[in-house]
Fold this sequence. Notes:
4 helices, about 90 residues
Amino acid sequence: MPESISSKKERYVSKYGITPQVAGILSSDRYFSELFENAKNETNAKDVANMITTDIMGLLDTREKRDSSKLNYYTNIKGRSKSGGRCKAKPRNC
C-alpha cells in the first residue's frame, strides 16, 4: 500500500527537517514527491525540497501563464481578422 500524504509529510518534516509548508506541498503532489525522493540524499534534502517548491514550480507556473496568454493573444487576433479566416500576415499585423 502506498504511503499516505500525511505520513509522507510527517516523514519529510521529521527525517529531513523540511518545513511543514514545503513538506505539505511536496507530499500532496505525486510528481514533485517522486522528484524529491529521487533527487535528495541525507545531506541535501532541504535544499532539494526548496529548489523544487520555489524554482521548478515557479518556472512551471510562469510557463503555464505564458502559454495561456499566447493562446488568448492568438484567439483575439483571429477574432479581429477582416476575412474571418486565418490571418496570413504576422500576428501583430492582423
